[in-house]
TrEMBL record:
Swiss-Prot/TrEMBL keywords: DNA-binding, Transcription, Transcription regulation
Domain HTH gntR-type: 13-81
Protein name per the record: GntR family transcriptional regulator
CDD domains linked to this entry: WHTH_GntR (cd07377)
Xref: InterPro entries: GntR_C, TF_FadR/GntR_C, Tscrpt_reg_HTH_GntR, WH-like_DNA-bd_sf, WH_DNA-bd_sf
GO molecular function: DNA binding; DNA-binding transcription factor activity
Length: 235
């Protein structure tokens, strides 16, 4: 295989990301197909004039992001996933956000599902009003075709506050910066797909209504369903 040979030399800074970028370009040009074996560490190290350690790092990151499979004794293979999904994952790796966002979504599912449950169970009239206000702000931002990342975060934070659990609230504040960055990226992608913003707004409405109805089980299910769909849309 020589599909990397015409590419530009790898920059010295953040070497593994440059290698990943080259692999992405090869996939986009159709030079690496789903399920195909990638060149060996030695071949790539010689091609890019980098150490095999840098190649190992790139392969490790790609494996963690669910892009390749490393088979001991056989080599590294591109997974047979949808090409668009692979490109999206690789883009996130290059930005340094791939696995972080997926892991963050999994953490949010475990925390916010229960937060919604307890918000429906313990939230008083004032809490529900705050959640509704946050939902209305999100709705207005969506209707005005804004990214609405900050409004989205405010909605989720209002639910964490209504749960009346100080540790849940502290954890949400601790990860709020990461959540906001993840929302900016995911909602930017959402705007590119017609009607997606309204679909996601509908998911938020179901969460709010379940809390308003004081239905803990429904609220938790709605929150977990929403976050699971966010993860799938991101991937």
């Amino acid at each position: 295989m020589n599909f990397f040979m015409e590419l530009l030399p790898v920059r010295k800074k953040r070497v593994y990301q440059d290698i990943v970028e080259q692999i992405k370009q090869a996939i986009e040009r159709g030079e690496i197909s789903q399920g195909e074996k990638l060149p060996s560490e030695r071949t790539l190290a010689e091609t890019f004039s980098v150490s095999r350690t840098s190649i190992k790092e790139a392969f490790s990151v790609l494996e963690s992001a669910g892009i390749v499979e490393i088979k001991q004794g056989s080599g590294v293979f591109l997974l047979k996933n949808n090409t668009a999904d692979i490109i999206a994952r690789i883009t996130s790796v290059i930005r340094g956000t791939a696995v972080d966002i997926v892991e963050l979504m999994e953490l949010r599912q475990s925390i916010e599902g229960d937060a919604a449950y307890y918000a429906a169970l313990r939230g008083d009239k004032k809490d529900v009003e705050v959640i509704y206000k946050a939902f209305c702000d999100l709705e207005n931002a969506v209707l005005n075709k804004k990214i609405a990342a900050e409004e989205d975060l405010a909605f989720h934070m209002s639910i964490a506050s209504a749960a009346k659990n100080s540790i849940v609230k502290k954890v949400m504040y601790m990860i709020s910066d990461q959540v906001l960055e993840g929302l900016k990226e995911s909602r930017t992608n959402t705007l590119k797909v017609p009607n997606n913003s309204k679909i996601i707004l509908g998911e938020h409405r179901v969460i709010y209504e379940a809390i308003q109805e004081e239905n803990p089980g429904k609220a938790k299910e709605a929150m977990c369903n929403h976050l699971q769909k966010v993860k799938h849309r991101y991937l």
